[in-house]
Amino acid sequence: MNYSIETLNTCTKKLSFKFESVDLSKEINEALKQKQKGAKLKGYRPGKAPLSMIQSMYGPQVENDALYRFVTKEFYEAIQTEGIKAIGYPKFSDTNYEVEKKNISFIAEVETFPEFEVGNYSKYEFEKTSEEVKTEDFDAVKNQMLGSRSEMVEVSNKDQALEKGHFATMNFQGVKADGAKPENMKGTDYVLEIGSGQFIPGFEDKMIGMKKGENKNIELTFPEDYHSEDLKGAKVTFEVELLEIKEKKLPEYNDEILKEFGFDSVSDFEEKTNKRLAAEKKRKSDETLHQQILEKLVKDNEFDVPATLIVNQVNALKEETKSNLLRSGLSEEMLAGYYDKWEDDFKQRASFQVRSGLILEKLAAKYDVKVEESDLDDKFNAMAELSSTPLEQVKSIYGGNEKLKQNLTYAIREEKTFDAIKKEITIK
To answer: What pTM does this model have?
Structure first.
């Protein structure tokens, strides 16, 4: 064996190679002849320059290329023989080629998946959030859907006071402490939903109780972190005239209106909506619990992590946020500044994701978790039912996209791993 192996840490190996009587001359000569065929040197026809001249011009480059091929070949054969699962590219150093003695030596450091064991977690205790679907959950969905068919009508009772949920049509003018009345603090026939939080804190609350035709002065102090510099912490009086009070009138909740949304009847809507809400509640409850389990496992299991995995995950996180940042108004030039500002946050998130992923992989192997075709079929059926999408359409979407299918397979494997973990811990 022409090498020795040293473990620098649980995820880094150092391989020291030493070879004697290595003859690279044949390979070097063949490479020089190939250079000669394509060489176009002044005074010589293409391909006819003397080999000695080619040697003087390209010798060092060809020798280095031959040495690099030898070094990489020996390295990859060694890690394959030793069963070392390398991450990323090796770092070569101290490469030495003694031409006369035909000796070659070099060192290669390579990152590997860390060697560690997950500590005992059988005494872990967690409290699961409720999966109960409440009446207000259902009503929120129903009202949101019916709201898309609602009409805005004026409140018929002239004595009706303004309440949260009402829409106030008003004129207003902001007056600063020095008596100035800026145009950008003025509104005419402005419609404001009370309780929406569109105006500065306190404005909408102080409008509650006003009646149609009423005038009121509302005194407020702008927040210290207000976006406009000249209004930060400023005291302003708003002169408000309430012109009209309106409210949304929802359509009648019956079979006819629900058919417009693709449901057969009220009972069909209620059954499907409650089932979807139950699935969503369960998903959120599971996500919260799984996150708590991961945080505890990561905290209790310290091990060296390959820098390459962290760097790759940081890059993946940045790529994930890129489209959202561009949509929010940042330019390509501004992205670098944003990434620099939040670099530590990216690294912390990446470190947690890599560590938790390695722990889950270790536990998946422990429980011999496998994803069968039947698991995929079950997932396809659940997705089709909850989204009211034909099963064949769901299958075609994932079957026609290998990356989507791989992501779904990984998600199922993760779910089955958590199911195995939860059988060994206490969940209240």
So the answer is: 0.74
